[in-house]
């Protein structure tokens, strides 16, 4: 029983800790308007329309995995979605204001 409780506590702790990449993404979102925008290829930037060079944004960006991790930790929430051929995917996220 204590082993299961220990695993549950460990999982909870992991979901509250933020990695350096997550902290950087939150800081960039705060610097702008509190939002991050998704672009083709799964890049998320703090700019609605960045300049792309060689398929990569020519500015700061983070990955879809980092943004999803911040959503799971209630640091960001998806606020706009786009419909593709077979599924919907998030295209805009904003910081969750804690009360």
What's the quick description here?
The chain has 99 residues and is of the alpha+beta class. Helices cover 36% and strands 28% of the residues.
Structural key phrases:
single chain, 6 strands, 4-stranded antiparallel β-sheet, alpha+beta, 3 helices, 99 residues, globular
Helix and strand topology:
Layout: H1 2-16, H2 20-31, E1 35-39, E2 43-45, E3 52-53, E4 56-57, H3 64-72, E5 76-83, E6 88-95
Antiparallel strand pairs: 1-2, 1-6, 3-4, 5-6
Descriptive report:
By secondary structure, the protein is of the alpha+beta class. The protein has one domain (19-95). It is built from 3 helices and 6 strands, in the order ααββββαββ. It has helices at 2-16, 20-31, 64-72; strands at 35-39, 43-45, 52-53, 56-57, 76-83, 88-95. A 4-stranded antiparallel beta sheet has the order 2-1-6-5. The protein is globular and about 45 Å long.
């Amino acid at each position: 029983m204590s082993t299961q409780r220990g695993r549950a506590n460990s999982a909870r702790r992991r979901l509250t800790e933020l990695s350096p990449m997550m902290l950087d993404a939150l800081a960039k979102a705060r610097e702008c308007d509190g939002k991050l925008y998704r672009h083709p290829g799964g890049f998320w930037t703090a700019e609605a329309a960045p300049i792309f060079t060689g398929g990569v944004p020519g500015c700061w960006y983070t990955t879809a995995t980092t943004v999803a991790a911040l959503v799971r930790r209630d640091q960001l929430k998806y606020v706009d979605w786009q419909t593709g051929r077979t599924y919907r995917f998030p295209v805009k996220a904003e910081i969750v204001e804690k009360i």
